[in-house]
Amino acid sequence: MEVIAVIVTFNRFSVLLETIKFLRNQTLKPGCIYVIDNCSKDETYNYFSTNSSIGLEYIRLSENIGYAGALAVGMEAAKKKYSPAYYWLLDDDSHPEENVLKELVANITMSDFAILGITGFKFSFTKKKKIISNLITEADFVLIDNALVKSDLVNSIGFPDKEYFMMCEDLDYCMRAKEKSFKVGVCSHLSVNRLHLGSTGASKSIIWRSYYHARNYVFIVRRYKSLKMMIYFVASQTKFIIAALFITRRFSLVYYRICGLIHGIFGKRGITLVPSTLKFQ
C-alpha cells in the first residue's frame, strides 16, 4: 500500500469526523486511515466501536500518551500490517485541500527528501523563519502535521519519540533524520486549514503546552549541541517569558515555563505534567 494516513485524536469527535471527510475527499486517497484515540472521554469510542468502515482502522489507547506516542503507535501498527511506502501524519483538527496528498506524493517521489511537510522553518541565531516559496525548499524542520514521511526514514530512525509527550516532537524527528543524512523539505504552497483548537489563548492547554515546549526544547539543545539552536533557544525563551507577563494567566504561564526549563535540565522525560489537572507527577 502506497500511503497510510495516521490521525491522532483526543476529545474532538465532531472535528475528527470532518477531518476524515477531508482525507476521503483527496484526489489521491490514502490506502487506509488510522485513527489513534488518546483515550477520549467524548463520543469517539462509542462511535468507532459500533461503526466499522472500509479503509479505516481505529485504535483506542488506555491512557493519553501524547501526540508523539500516539503517532508512534499508529505508524508501528501501519508498518506491521501494510508496510506502506509513505506515512501521512495529521492532527485531528487539520483540513487539507483535496490536492494536498497528490502533490506531496508527486513532489517527494521526484526529490531526495525523506520528509516533506507543508509548514517548514529555517533557524537563525535569534529567529525561526517560516519558509514561503512556490518551490520545494529544504528546511531545518517541518511541522509533523500533514507531513509525508518515507518508509526508508522510518526503517532507519524509527518513530517519533514518545518521551516528548507533546511539543517539539517534530523538531526532534527532523533532527534525527538529518543525523542520518536524510533531507527535510517543505511544500509551503500547499493549503491546509488548521483550526488550532489546542493552542488558543482562552484554552488551558496553552499553559501545559508552554511547559512541555520549554522542557522538550532543553532536551533538543542538550542532545544535538548546536550553537545556533542554543542561542535561538535562549533568545526565544526569554521572549516567551517577557510576553507572558502581559497576557491573561501570565503568572501560570511564566511559572510552568520556568518549571519546564528546570525539568528539561534535570532530564525529566515522559508525562511529567498532567494536562487536565496541571499537576506534576
Give the terminus-to-terminus CA distance.
Answer: 41 Å
The residue fraction in helices comes out at 40-55%
What is the helix/strand order? Answer: EHEHEHEEHEEEEEEHHEEHHHEE
Give the count of helical stretches: 9
| Global morphology | globular
- Largest sheet: spatial strand order: 3-2-1-4-11-6-12-9
Which regions are unreliable across 5 or more consecutive residues at pLDDT < 50? none
Can you give the mean pLDDT? 92
Output the radius of gyration.
18 Å
SSE-based structural type = alpha/beta
Estimated share of beta-strand residues: 15-25%
- How many strands in all? 15
Major sheet attributes: 8 strands, mixed
Q: Could you list some keywords that capture this structure?
A:
globular, alpha/beta, eight-stranded mixed β-sheet, 281 residues, 15 strands
Molecular structure report:
The chain is an alpha/beta fold. 42% of the residues lie in helices and 21% in strands. It is built from nine helices and 15 strands. The protein has helices at residues 13-24, 44-50, 66-82, 100-109, 151-157, 169-179, 205-224, 227-244, 250-265, and strands at 3-9, 32-37, 56-60, 86-91, 94-96, 113-117, 120-123, 128-130, 137-138, 141-142, 147-150, 183-186, 192-194, 273-274, 279-280. Strands 3-2-1-4-11-6-12-9 form an eight-stranded mixed β-sheet, sandwiched between helices. Strand 14 (273-274) and strand 15 form a beta hairpin. Helix 7 (205-224) runs antiparallel to helix 8 (227-244), helix 7 runs parallel beside helix 9 (250-265) and helix 8 runs antiparallel to helix 9. The longest helix is centred in the C-terminal third of the chain and has 20 residues, at 205-224. It is globular. It starts with a strand and ends with a strand. The model has no long low-confidence stretch (mean pLDDT 92).
